[in-house]
Amino acid sequence: MNKGSTVKISGDVSIVLCGAAGQGIQTIEQILPRVLKRAGYNVFATKEYMSRVRGGSNSTQIRVSSRRVSAYLDRIDILIPLDNAAIPHLKKRISPDTVIIGDSEKLSSDLEFIDVPFSGLAKKIGGTIYENIVAVGMLSGMFRLDIEMVSDFIMKFFSKKKEDIVRNNITAFKKGYETGTDFCRSGKFCIDIGTDKEAAEEILISGSEAVGLGAIAGGCNFISAYPMTPSTGVFTFLAQHSDNFDIIVEQAEDEIAAMNMQLGAWYAGARAMVTTSGGGLALMVEGISLAGMIESPAVIYLAQRPGPATGLPTRTEQGDLEMALYSGHGEFPRVIYTPGTLEDAFYLTQKAFNVADKYQIPVFVLSDQNLADLIYNLPLPDMSAVNVERYIIKTGSDYKRYELTEDGISPRGIPGYGAGIIGADSDEHNEDGHITEDLDLRIKMVDKRLKKLDLVRAESVPPELIGNENYETLVVGWGSTHGAIKEALENIGSNDISYLYIKQVYPLHPDITDYLENAEKTIIVENNATSQFGKLIKLYLGMEFDSKVLKYDGMPFSVEELAGRISREAAI
Description:
Blueprint: E1 7-10, E2 12-21, H1 25-38, E3 42-48, E4 55-65, E5 78-81, H2 86-89, E6 99-102, E7 114-115, H3 118-125, H4 131-142, H5 147-157, H6 163-185, E8 189-192, H7 197-201, E9 203-206, H8 207-217, E10 222-225, H9 232-240, H10 242-245, E11 248-251, H11 255-268, E12 272-276, H12 278-294, E13 298-304, H13 321-326, E14 335-337, H14 342-359, E15 362-368, H15 369-373, E16 375-378, H16 439-458, E17 464-466, E18 473-478, H17 482-492, E19 497-502, E20 504-506, H18 511-517, E21 521-526, H19 532-541, E22 547-550, H20 559-570
Parallel strand pairs: 1-8, 2-5, 5-6, 6-7, 10-11, 10-12, 12-13, 13-15, 14-15, 18-19, 18-21, 21-22
Antiparallel strand pairs: 2-4, 3-4, 3-16, 9-16, 14-20, 17-19
Helix pairs in contact: 1-4, 3-4, 3-6, 4-6, 5-6, 8-9, 8-14, 11-12, 17-20
C-alpha cells in the first residue's frame, strides 16, 4: 500500500489478525464473524495456531463477502498485527496491496502501515488485554455496523465476567469503533461489501458444531472421549448441550476406556459416539476389532492432524485415512464418511448413527483440523430429511444374538428388553454367543459378517460432480479440500475441468469408476504425502491418477495455490 493513498475494498475482503497466544485472537474470531453475520454479511473464518499457551504466532482469517464463501485464501487485504512477530510470520502472504493497520509502539517494519495506537488506547481503558476488542471495534466501524447491536453482543459475550471488565470491553469497542468510522469518513479507506438478507437469518457454526448437531439429530445419547485436539470441539459441544438432549458425557481416563465405554453403551441400548484424533485412535484399535467381532454398532469421530506420534497437534492433514480403513485386526466391514462441507458434516454424522445401528458395524466420520475449526454461515438443516432409525428388537426366549441370516444381519436385542439372553464374546462364537472352536462354524460367522459389506455398499453415499458433465479433466477430492477445490475451479473458469467430491471413501460408490473412466486426465488432491485415497482407488478399482496435487506442511490448501497447481497439471 502506498502511503497516503485512497483504498477501497469491495466484493470480498480477506482480513487477517495475528498475535501471540494470550492476546485474544480467539476472542476476536468468536465475536467479529458473528456480528458481521447479524449485519447481513456472508462470513467465513479459519485459524492457524501453535501448540502453546503463551507466545508464538496465532492468526485468524475472516473473509467477508457479498456471496457465499467457504475456503481459505493466501490473499490478505487487511492485516492487523498485534505484535512485532506477526509480519515476519505472515510475510509470504503479504502483497503490495495488503493494507496493514498496526501500532507503531509495537511494530518495527519496513512496510508501510496505518498507525493505530491499539496499545495506548487499551492501556487508558485498563490494560493491553483490551487491544483485541479495540481491533474488533475498529473493524466494526470500518464496516459501519450498528454500534448498539455490537455493544449488546459484546455485553452478553462477557456477561459472566465482573462488571468492570464488561464495562471496559464496551469502552474498548467504542474507542476502536471511532477509529474505524474515521477511516471511511476521511475518504482514505473504505470497505464496501454488499449485504445479504438471507445471511442475517442463517446460522454461523463451526465444523465441530456441525458434527455435534448431526450427532444430536442422530439420536446420540452417550459420548465418551479422552480430549485430543482437534476432536475435542465435538466432545465439548455435546457436553455443553447434554442437559437439553439427555446425553451422558464421560471423559474417560484414556482412549482405550473411551472406546470400550462406547461399546458398553451400545450393548445397553444407547446410541453412542467416541471422538478422537490419530494418536487416540491408535489406542482404540483393539476396541474397534472388538466391535467387529461382537457386531456392535460404533460411531467414531476421527479428526485428523499431522503425525506420526504427536506430530503437529494443532495443524491439519488427511493422513489417517488408511488408519481408519485398516484399524482393528481381523476382517470385518466398516464405513468411512468424509464430509467436506458443514452441511455434509451434519447430515453424514446423523446418517452414521443409523448405518451403525442397522448394520451393527463401526462407522467413521473422518474430519481434520481444517474442517473442525472453520466457520461459515449456512441455512438451518432440513430436519425433514433426517430420521432416527432404531433397529433393536424385543427378544424371545429362543433368541440367538448371532443368528445366521441370509443377509448377514442378526436381530439385535439388548439386556432387559424381552426374555432372551444377550451374549457377547470377543472369541469366535456360535449363534447364541458362546465361545466355539468349530472351524466350519468359524467360516460361516466370518462370511456372515462380511456379507454386510455388500449391503452398505449398495446404500453408500454417491459422489457429487461439480462442473460440466462433458469434462476432459477430472479433479478428485475428499473431505476438507472441498471448498478450496471448488473455488479454485471457479477461478480457473474452464468448462473442460470438473470436480468429483467424494463424501464416502469406503466402501466406494460404484459411480466413481464411471466418472474416472470418462475423463481424459485425472488429478487427485489430498492433504497428505502419499495420496492415500489415490492408493485406495488403485487397490479397489485398479485405476491410477494421472497427476497428484499433495500438501503436507500442516496447512490447508489455499484457493490460489490450488488454482495454480491444477492449472499446471491440466496444462491450461
